[in-house]
Amino acid sequence: xxxxxxxxxxxxxxxxxxxxxxxxxxxxxxxxxxxxxxxxxxxxxxxxxxxxxxxxxxxxxxxxxxxxxxxxxxxxxxxxxxxxxxxxxxxxxxxxxxxxxxxxxxxxxxxxxxxxxxxxxxxxxxxxxxxxxxxxxxxxxxxxxxxxxxxxxxxxxxxxxxxxxxxxxxxxxxxxxxxxxxxxxxxxxxxxxxxxxxxxxxxxxxxxxxxxxxxxxxxxxxxxxxxxxxxxxxxxxxxxxxxxxxxxxxxxxxxxxxxxxxxxxxxxxxxxxxxxxxxxxxxxxxxxxxxxxxxxxxxxxxxxxxxxxxxxxxxxxxxxxxxxxxxxxxxxxxxxxxxxxxxxxxxxxxxxxxxxxxxxxxxxxxxxxxxxxxxxxxxxxxxxxxxxxxxxxxxxxxxxxxxxxxxxxxxxxxxxxxxxxxxxxxxxxxxxxxxxxxxxxx
Length: 442
Ligand SMILES: Nc1nc2c(ncn2[C@@H]2O[C@H](COP(=O)(O)OP(=O)(O)O)[C@@H](O)[C@H]2O)c(=O)[nH]1
Ligand SMILES: [Mg+2]
What we know:
The chain is an alpha/beta fold. It has three domains: 83 residues, Four Helix Bundle (Hemerythrin (Met), subunit A) (Up-down Bundle); 192 residues, P-loop containing nucleotide triphosphate hydrolases (Rossmann fold), CATH 3.40.50.300; 147 residues, 434 Repressor (Amino-terminal Domain) (Orthogonal Bundle). 61% of the residues lie in helices and 9% in strands. Strands 3-2-4-1-5-6-7-8 form an eight-stranded mixed β-sheet, sandwiched between helices. The longest helix has 22 residues. The C terminus is likely disordered.
């Protein structure tokens, strides 16, 4: 998500950085570029208007023009405004509630409801909860089978929904069943339609009235663009949604929907789907997303995701390496191994500071192949070399290349990349302002 926007904003900041002292005109020009960037990212026109007005007003004020480093200050303003547009202060999602905590999943057919609910149920399971998945799309037997099959695949329980009956009554029975058998979290997978219709809205309302779900999540397909937002309002009128799951964020390079939801619906994005696999779900934090858009990296999410999939020890090790600033080739290799284990390279790489710049130039599959090569090179080093890469003189590099059947130039490239990473991680330690500096630093 947001690749296009990231690229254009980077250009805008680069131009500003070259200016030294900023004039009113420079700011106007930068704001105009931001407006174009947002519009081509398919952000709702009203959001674009308010966003640019706000950035322009703040940039003209004292804090920017008179600042010691105005370009940096300008990007800080953009970062803060992006955070606001994406939902402002992050309210961390909480599983708490009187059991069974009920989630109602809503959305058009194909939006990703069933997949997202299964992902959420898996996340609940990882939180040591006992989830129950409940298919409520009686019109399509295939829908019930899809959930059953996901349940089997993930070893999660699926309610034995009867093939006939009223969805509201079945939902109520399922929640009673959950209470009776100790399931503390219930996910109701409702029927979708290709387009909004009154029957569907009535049915959803009846289900909501019957079971009073604590969470009413609308699943919106990020790739559907602005049309997804207009149907969202209808769902909200029917059931007063509590939050949004933005699915298929991995397939959307523009990100317009994510930037428009808060303004258009006034509801928070709680989770984003980043791939088809059950683990491809992330909690959504506006500030972290804003850093990613500005290519400042998102180490917090990277570590969280790692914790879900990699053993706790491995994740702690990785986090320790990152936060202590100790980043030897051993840490680098650990990162490479973790990346190999985790979902898609693309979503991982976007969380690494500065990686956006890299992503523009390379193909993701090449990166995956590249990972294996890099690991084999590090494997061919001695422990002393891994700890202290300064030892790696010409003859050692030749030996390593021979050892893993690569060229010396491959070894050189790996070391160069490692050094760049090391610098980036050290900078990240200095906090957000430091990361912002990185945007302008080189
Ligand atoms: N790439 C990607 N595909 C997704 C994501 N979420 C769902 N899908 C795919 O979208 C299609 C429709 O999903 P499904 O859950 O059946 O939608 P439903 O009709 O709303 O229940 C399926 O092929 C899913 O694999 C996601 O986050 N990323
Ligand atoms: Mg479905």
